[in-house]
Amino acid sequence: GVHLGVPISVIAEAVISRFMSKATTREGKEIKWNGEVPQDLVDNLGKALQLSQAVAYAQGFQQLKMAADAYNWDLRYPAIAQSWEAGCIIRSSMLKDIEKAFAEGKKLDNMFQDPYFKDLMNKNIPALRAVIELATEAGIPTPTLSASLNYLESIFNPSLPANLIQGQRDYFGAHTYFRNDRDGVYHTEWYEEK
Q1: What angle do CA 162, 188, 161 make, to 5 degrees?
Q2: Other Cβ atoms within 10 Å of 59 Cβ, number
Q3: Residue 74, pLDDT score
Q4: Residue 26: what pLDDT?
Q5: What is the C-alpha separation between 121 and 149, in angstroms, rounded?
Q6: Would I find Oxidoreductase among this entry's keywords (predicted)?
Q7: What does the H/E/C string look like for 138-186?
Q8: What is the rounded end-to-end Cα distance, in angstroms, of the chain?
Q9: pLDDT, position 194
C-alpha cells in the first residue's frame, strides 16, 4: 500500500498492534477506571467496531483499486467480496453489503461514496468518537479505532491533514507554511529560546 500511496492506516495499525502485544512489558501499570461507565457503552462500542470494520474494508478495496489502476488489472470487486465471504480470515456479513455497493455498477473511488456506507458512517461516527474519548480518559489505547476516525475525518476534509503537517514541519524545523486566508509563505516563532 505504501508504494502506491494508499492510506491503509487501519490495516497498518492492526499489524503494529500485533507487534506491540509482543513488545509490552509485564511491569506496566494496571489500568483502573474510576469514572462512571456510560449506559450506552456496549451499544456505542458495537457501532464503533462496525464502523472501524467498514473503514478497514474501505481501505482494503481502495488499495485494490489503486493497484488495479497502477498495474492495469481488471478486478471485479463484487466477486472479490463474494470470494472473501465464502471462507476467508476476513469474512463477515458486511461483505454482502460491499458486494451490493460494487454490484450496482458504480465506480466507487471509496466505499463511503455508496449510500449504505455513507449512512453507516453518519450514524456510527458519534459512537466512534465517544468510545475513543472514553478510552483515552481511561488510558486505554485504541489504535485501529483512532486510525478509523482519523481516516474518516481526513478523507472528508482533505486539506486539514496537510495543513497540520505544514504547521508541524514549521514548528520542528522552520520549514514554513502556506495559509488558506492569504497568499505568501509564512514562518512562526512557535516557542521562545531559553
Answers
A1: 10
A2: 23
A3: 93
A4: 62
A5: 10
A6: yes
A7: HCCCCHHHHHHHHHHHHHCCCHHHHHHHHHHHHHHHCCCEECCCCCCEE
A8: 43
A9: 56
What pLDDT is recorded for position 71?
96
Which domain range does residue 169 map to?
159-194
Q: Are residues 180 and 126 in the same domain?
A: no
Averaged over successive runs of 10 residues, the pLDDT of the chain (194 residues) comes to 84 88 70 80 97 97 94 94 86 94 84 96 98 93 96 82 76 82 86 66
> Do 113 and 164 share a domain, yes or no?
no
Task: Tell whether 106 is covered by a domain.
Answer: yes
Residues 107, 51 share a domain: yes
At residue 88, the 3 state secondary structure works out as: coil
What sign results for the dihedral spanned by CA atoms 54, 56, 59, 63? negative
What integer pLDDT is reported at residue 22 of this predicted model?
81
Structural domain contains residue 27: no
